């Protein structure tokens, strides 16, 4: 069977709902709906009140979730000192760990520690960071995450300049086996744009958690399959 490039990309499409938009008073119910709704991963947003002006959860909470949720945990660390915490998140059950290139900790050391801890290493860039900073690391990581909003809060509007950044990074990735994830402002209106620009892992919080998760995920898949590349 001959599989063309577009089919390969479709096979690699993943949906990673952001638990930031879940109802934390009914977390078990909401996260079970993510799993039952057919999501591929669970996006776990970790914020320290320092790198970003918001605070969420830590490794102890991730460890609790790991006991009941079977999906791969896609852990997005929005924290100033990732080197201090990478091993704790790995031990808590993270599968993919993503660190910001903007933090002071050495990026290569973060990548090495994530891999040594048994997780897939990923880098994320905020909207004002030039995409070229990723180039030296591209052969050493499994995924690049591009922020479509300034990190810190769910429910923000997609920044249109992100589209060109996605295209540039997809070109930089070339034939490498590196996922390109988009996070922030992805909804029924913006999804086809980010997929057409080359994103294959889609994070979405406020859109997927409003209404029926299963219906929203299947609507997302229809849009992704129909997007032109
Ligand atoms: C923002 C977080 C995102 C956010 C996405 O800092 O990293 O994961 O929750 O939420 P929406 O999809 O509502 O923009
Ligand atoms: Zn995130």
From TrEMBL:
Enzymatic reactions: D-ribulose 5-phosphate = D-xylulose 5-phosphate
Coiled coil (UniProt feature): none
Catalytic center residues: 45, 183
This protein's UniProt keywords: Carbohydrate metabolism, Cobalt, Isomerase, Manganese, Metal-binding, Zinc
Family annotation (SUPFAM superfamilies): Ribulose-phoshate binding barrel
Residues the record lists as binding substrate: 18, 76, 152-155, 183-185, 205-206
GO cellular component, one term: cytoplasm
Residues annotated to bind a divalent metal cation: 43, 45, 76, 183
InterPro entries for this protein: Aldolase_TIM, Ribul_P_3_epim, Ribul_P_3_epim-like, RibuloseP-bd_barrel
This protein's record includes keyword Manganese: yes
Listed cofactors: a divalent metal cation; Co(2+); Mn(2+); Zn(2+)
This enzyme's EC code(s): 5.1.3.1
Function: Catalyzes the reversible epimerization of D-ribulose 5-phosphate to D-xylulose 5-phosphate.
UniProt-recorded name of the protein: Ribulose-phosphate 3-epimerase
Organism: Eubacterium callanderi
Gene for this chain: rpe
């Amino acid at each position: 069977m001959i599989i063309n490039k577009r089919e390969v990309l479709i096979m690699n499409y993943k949906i990673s709902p952001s638990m930031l938009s879940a109802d934390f008073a009914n977390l078990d119910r909401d996260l079970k709906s993510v799993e039952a709704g057919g999501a591929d991963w669970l996006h776990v947003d970790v914020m320290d009140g320092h790198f970003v002006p918001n605070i969420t959860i830590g490794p102890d909470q991730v460890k609790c979730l790991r006991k009941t949720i079977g999906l791969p945990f896609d852990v997005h660390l929005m924290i100033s000192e990732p080197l201090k915490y990478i091993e704790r998140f790995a031990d808590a059950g993270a599968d993919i760990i993503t660190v910001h290139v903007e933090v002071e900790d050495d990026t290569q050391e973060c990548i090495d520690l994530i891999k040594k801890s048994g997780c897939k290493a990923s880098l994320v860039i905020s909207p004002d960071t030039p995409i070229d900073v990723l180039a030296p690391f591209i052969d050493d990581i499994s995924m690049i995450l591009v922020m479509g909003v300034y990190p810190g809060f769910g429910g923000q509007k997609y920044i249109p300049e992100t589209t060109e950044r996605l295209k540039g990074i997809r070109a930089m990735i070339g034939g490498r086996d590196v996922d390109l994830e988009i996070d922030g402002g992805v909804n029924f209106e913006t999804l086809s744009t980010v997929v057409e620009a080359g994103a294959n892992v889609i994070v979405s919080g406020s859109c997927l958690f409003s209404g029926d998760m299963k219906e929203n995920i299947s609507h997302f898949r229809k849009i992704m399959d129909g997007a032109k590349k």
